[in-house]
Every structure is written in C-alpha cells, then in structure tokens.
UniProtKB/TrEMBL annotation:
Coiled coil: none annotated. Pfam families: TctA (PF01970). Keywords: Membrane, Transmembrane, Transmembrane helix. The chain crosses the membrane at residues 20-49, 61-82, 109-135, 147-167, 318-339, 359-380, 392-407, 413-429, 436-454, 474-492. InterPro entries: DUF112_TM (IPR002823). Signal peptide: none annotated. Residues 20-440 form the DUF112 domain. This is Tripartite tricarboxylate transporter TctA. It comes from the Bacteria.
C-alpha cells in the first residue's frame, strides 16, 4: 500500500504541465540522437547537464530519463532501415531488422521493435517500482567471478550459437578482443598494441568501432556491389500494425527478451549488449529446432526478442543507479554525475532523503513509455520511406552523419581516421564471410572480462577455483556447458542428415 501511495504522489508530480513538457522534450531528443548514427544518449545528457541547472532537479531528471528511454527506442530505427544502429545496444536488432526492410517489411519490423520496447518497458518499470529492494540485493551479490562468467556466456552465445560457423565466429571474436586491449592497461600501466601512436594510449572508442564496422563498412560493401544491385530501394510503406500471424510470432520473443533483460539491468556493469545478443541467440536456436530457416533473411523473432531485452535492461538499470550509486552504462554514469552536481548522492538513503524526486522519476518512466509509443508507432511508414531515397545520396548521408558523430564525441581527427580504418575492416570481414557481431561483442565486453578475471584471481591469490565458487557462477557455467553440448549435438545431427 505504501508503494502505491508513493507512486500516486510521483504521478501527481510527473503529470504537471512543466514536467510533461520536459518529458516530451526528453523523449523527442532521445529519439533523434538514437536515430543518428554516432551520436548517443550519454553525449546528449552530458550536453544537457549545464543547460538544466536552472531547472528543479525533478524536472531535469525527468528530461534525462526521457532522453535515456528515447535513445533506446530510436536506436532501432536506423538499425532496421540502414543496418546502422544508433546505439550499440541495437546491434543485434540489425541482424534481422535490415533483411526485413530489404524484403519490404520495414513497417512491420519497426512496429515490432516499438511494441516490444513499449511492453518490455512497462513490465520492467513495474518490477522496478515494486521489487527495487530485492533487485538491489541481487546486484550486491555479483562480484568479479560472476561478471567474468557472464562475459564468457555472451562470447560463446555470439561466436558459436548466433553466427553458426564456430571457426569464423571465434576468429572474429579474437579480433574484437584484440581491439579491446589497445592502449594502457589500467592495472599494470603497460602499453599494449599502440604501434607507437600516442593517440592510441586511451584505447579505441567503442563508438568508433561500432560506427566504423557497421555504418562505414556497410556503405563500402554496398558500393562494391552497386553494379549488381539497383540504385534505389523501393519498398511498400504499408501499415505500422502487425498482422495476427506476426503478433503470434512476437509474443514469445517479447516475453523471453524481457525476462533476459530485466536481471541484466540490475547487474552493475551488465549493460544492454549481453542480453540483446543472448536473446538473439536464443531465438535463433529455437527457430532451428522448429526447422525455421528464416533467420538471416529477416525473421521477425530476431527483432522482437533483442528489442524487448534492450528496453527491459534500460528500465532496470535505474535500480543500481538510484539504489547503489553504481552506473551500468555510460549514460547512467552521466546521470550519476548530474546527481552529484545537484548535491545528491544516489544510494540506499536516496529513496528516503529524496523520495519525491525518486517516485516522480519512476512515474515519468510510465509516461515517457506511452509518449514514445505514440510518437514512434504511427510514423513507422514515414521512417520506412527513407529507403526510397536514391542509394548514393542515402549512403553518402550516412557517412557524413557517422563522421560528424565520431568527430564531435572527442573532437579528434585521429578518431575519424580510425573510423575509416574500422570501415575498411568491416568491408573485408563482410567480403570474406566473417560475422561482425563477435567483433563488436569482443570490443564491448573484452575489458569487463579481463578486469573481472584479474580481480577474481587477485582475490583468490591465483586459485582458479574462485571462478566456480558461488551459486551464480555455477549456474552460469552450467549454462555455458549445456550450450556447448547442445550446439555440438545439433551440428552433428545436421551433418548426418546432410
């Protein structure tokens, strides 16, 4: 009863005209930065922090939360239409969303992403409201061994299960891990793989790698085949609502994706990339058991699951931020800095000391989700018409936005050069049939896996048994073992049946 009364007070604050306007501005801005390749919600909130100092803290954080949520909704748009995710958490969506768009099902793909995001957000925010204390206890229970086990599970799921070709998948993963260790080792101070370049001492930005491999690499790949394909891509604008058959296919992935995303948002340093890739791998494995060969050609389940996992993770990531003061993403880290600028310290006492702000913020998440549904779903056909633009203009625009987005991140010309190097690498990987996903997951999760392994070994004074010493690690490593065995058995059966 106390929770309902506190939530009611939060809605009373969130539904004031000013806060509604700030929430609308936030979701609009978040959608825009989510759509534009190279930009991100972290940069948008960082730019907004100095501007919002004259606002009341409640209104400012309602706007920040709107940007955060809007970025996840908008990131799927270019992932589906242009194979260029606006956010790294939308990478898995591109694997099936882009083929759906090429098959003239872009409105259905966009509607699947928007509806899945909306449903997952509602479920996740409801869980956050009523089960925050339990989620905080779960987050506290994770240490370096658990983080390392999760990273290994993600590596295996992407390299072996999702790609289908274990050798090529592991090769691509190794390349991603090599890129992730470029720069100065934070623990030992050793300089690794910088080739004598001072600009590489800070490592290679994830934005550079993601935009280079996916956006610029796709442009080069398309340009190399331009003489064999039409200059324009004509699609049917269609209607944004899903057919009954599509809805039947989406319900399961939406629920499974939400179930995967909720716990990962609670885990500090979990991030949205792991559950999206795990969701994609799970849906692909289930499709293979059913004998469905549509994956890789535009399977709607491959859009529904990852998008639900993505947005469920975004909502529950506020639990460690508000309850523990631990950010689970770059955007959450910027919001943590904003709390400190306002003289507040997120943690267990925040729910009692700043109760009005916390509950108004949680209530605004419900309001923002409804706003995003109203803004995105009716305009799915309008977004889909982007593919009517002549391909030479379209992809030239992608390169321009990608270049500007990367340059504005750190105002570095060297990053722009690295962007084109990553683009050339992405082109070569596509040309020779190597998957892109393991490279990206290696770059993103490589530092987490390395740091967690070294800290775990330091805690145990070199005893590797610490990696399987807790209940969480045992469960995760059991899942890894079961996944490996199931994958081997499936491939052996498929080879026998020929």
């Amino acid at each position: 009863m106390d929770t309902l009364s506190l939530l009611g007070g939060g809605f009373a604050e969130a539904l004031t005209p000013l806060n509604l306007l700030l929430c609308l501005v936030g979701v609009l801005l978040g959608t825009v930065v989510g759509v534009l390749p190279g930009l991100g919600t972290a940069m948008a909130i960082a730019l907004l922090v100095p501007v919002t100092f004259r606002l009341e803290p409640t209104g400012a954080f309602i706007m920040f939360a709107g940007v955060y949520f809007g970025g996840q909704f908008g990131g799927a748009t270019t992932a589906i239409l242009l194979n260029t995710p606006g956010q790294s958490s939308s990478m898995a969506t591109a694997f099936e969303g882009f083929p759906m768009a090429k098959n003239r099902r872009a409105p259905q793909a966009l509607a699947t992403a928007v509806l899945g995001s909306f449903l997952a957000s509602l479920v996740a925010v409801t869980l956050v409201v009523f089960f925050s204390p339990l989620m905080v206890e779960l987050a506290v229970g994770f240490g370096p061994p658990e983080y390392f086990a999760l990273a290994v599970l993600a590596f295996l799921a992407v390299s072996a299960v999702v790609t289908g070709d274990v050798l090529r998948g592991m090769t691509a993963l190794s390349l991603g891990l090599a890129l992730s260790v470029v720069g100065i080792d934070e623990q030992s101070g050793a300089v690794r793989f910088t080739l004598g370049s001072a600009q590489l001492l800070d490592g290679i930005s994830i934005v550079v790698v993601t935009v280079g491999l996916l956006a610029v690499g796709e442009v080069l790949h398309v340009a190399a085949r331009s003489h064999r394909e039409p200059v324009t891509e004509t699609i049917s604008s269609g209607r944004p609502w899903l057919s009954r058959r599509d809805l039947r296919r989406c319900w399961g992935p939406w629920l499974r994706g939400t179930a995967l995303g909720v716990p990962f948002g609670v885990i500090p340093a979990g991030g949205a990339e792991i559950p999206t890739f795990l969701s994609y791998g799970a849906e692909k494995s289930l499709a293979a058991r059913r004998g469905d060969g549509e994956f890789g050609k535009g399977a709607i389940e491959g859009v529904a699951g990852p998008e639900a996992a993505n947005n469920a993770t975004t909502a529950t990531s506020l639990v460690p931020l508000l309850g523990l003061g631990l950010p689970t993403s770059a955007t959450a880290a910027i919001m943590l800095g904003a709390f400190q600028q306002y003289g507040m310290r997120p943690g267990p006492l925040l729910f009692s000391q700043e109760s009005d702000l916390v509950w108004a913020l949680l209530a605004s998440l419900f309001v923002g989700s409804v706003m995003l549904l109203a803004l995105n779903l009716p305009f799915a056909p309008l977004w889909a018409r982007l593919l009517r633009i002549p391909r030479n203009y379209l992809y030239a625009g992608i390169v321009v936005f990608a270049t500007l987005g990367v340059y504005t991140t750190r105002s570095s010309v060297f990053d722009v050069l690295l962007l084109y190097v990553m683009g050339a690498l992405g082109f070569l990987l596509r040309r020779h049939g190597f998957p892109i996903a393991p490279v990206l997951i290696g770059v993103i999760l490589g530092p987490l896996a390395e740091t967690s392994l070294r800290r775990a070994m330091a805690m145990s004074q070199g005893d590797p048994g610490v990696l399987v010493s807790g209940p969480f690690t045992i469960v995760i490593h059991t899942l890894v073992l079961v996944t490996v065995i199931a994958s081997v058995v499936y491939r052996l059966r498929r080879r026998r049946t020929g």
